[in-house]
Amino acid sequence: KSPVFRVDNCPIHDGQLRHIGLDSLLYLLSANGMKFYKTGKNSALSGPNGLIDKDDIVLLKVNAQWKCRGCTNTDMLRGLIHRILQHPDGFKGEVVVFENGQNRPASFDGIHCDMNNSEYKPFPELDGKIMVNAEQQDLLTIDYLVGTVFAGKPVSSFLLDPYLDTWIVKDDHTTNGYRRIGEPGTQCVSYPCFTTAKGNRIELKEGRWNGSAYAQNLKLIHCAVLKDHSGDIGMTGALKIVYGTLSMKDGTSAERHYVDLGSQCAKMWTQVRIPDLNILDCIWVSYGSTKVNGYDVSGCIGYPPSITSRQNILLAGLDPVAIDYHANKHILFPLGGENSKNHDPDNNPDRKSVV
């Protein structure tokens, strides 16, 4: 069986750089053989077989396509970045937060836009406002983390939305864009290649291009948020986060939603890159769907507050299916809501056909 690590009762965050819930999760992982820091200095969080080395390029894949409680909790994200920077040997690499909103678009400034053509249309009170998933919902955007909280530190971000239909060849190591695995129009997947603010060339499948070869000082941490999702999928979490890594412009968007969901996710995990750690943010959980002013509202948008619930839970592990099963069965399903029948992984024929 695949272990799933769980921290309950995360305290309401107090605005500090460290996040008590995230720290507890890292100590729990380390106590079970998954030390966070790779170093010769043995401690509760570090050892020679640890995860993060001092010169690693650490990619943090977040959920930022949606706003409000539908995006990754940035209090937790701040705590994770802070811990990476506290490497006992002195961190010499780069932390890169990245996302692809598939032209929704993803947003690192947290501002709602295009209200007339979005799922947020029933909520004019959000128009033009910052609304993220944090205790300070009108402030703690990813842009704020990178530009203010960690200003002067090796922390950057990269939005992939402008490069969704930029397809590059194998020997192109300068253009920001995507490479395909498979032929256009088939059940292919794709992966991003981009250059970070510090000049690190990331080609997600192969590694970090150093000008002559690929280096493997690249770490990938998925930082997903647990929430309801419309359709047979029922939820979104640790497995489906790769839908914000590939490009939907490769001709197979229709198949992904949702007939080939399981196989498409599996291809990303097996043919591109397996993350070194999966963290599932269950601090706030959007657990249901509702109808507002004649509009059907899916819980994936993280709003309104009437269909979100503070759970103060963090999950982690290496197996995304095990994490999502646990999250559905023991966190999402008990919250009820109009879509709860799709949240029980043991009693959902449609879901089994997808996953």
Explain what the structure shows:
The longest helix has 13 residues. The mean pLDDT is 93. The protein starts with a strand and ends with a helix. The strands form 4 sheets. Strands 1, 4, 5, 6, 12, 13, 14 and 17 form an 8-stranded mixed beta sheet that branches. Strands 7-8-9-10-11 form a 5-stranded antiparallel beta sheet. Strands 2-3 form a two-stranded parallel sheet. It is of the alpha/beta class. Helix content is 19%, strand content 23%. The protein has 7 helices and 17 strands. Helix 1 packs across helix 2.
Order of helices and strands: EHEEEHEHEEEEEEEEHHEEEEHH
Record field, number of beta strands: 17
Largest sheet: 8 strands, mixed
Q: How much of the residues is beta strand, in percent?
A: 15-25%
The coarse overall form would be globular
Low-pLDDT regions:
none
Number of DSSP helical runs: 7
Residue share in helix: 10-25%
Q: What's the gyration radius in Å? A: 19 Å
Distance from first to last alpha carbon: 18 Å
List the helices and strands and how they pair.
Layout lengths: L4 E3 L12 H12 L5 E2 L7 E2 L9 E6 L11 H12 L8 E6 L42 H8 L5 E5 L17 E5 L7 E7 L5 E3 L3 E3 L4 E2 L2 E11 L6 E2 L16 H4 L4 H12 L4 E10 L3 E3 L2 E3 L10 E10 L2 H13 L16 H6 L1
Parallel strand pairs: 2-3, 4-5, 4-12, 5-6, 12-14
Antiparallel strand pairs: 1-17, 7-8, 8-9, 9-10, 10-11, 12-13, 14-17, 15-16
Helix pairs in contact: 1-2
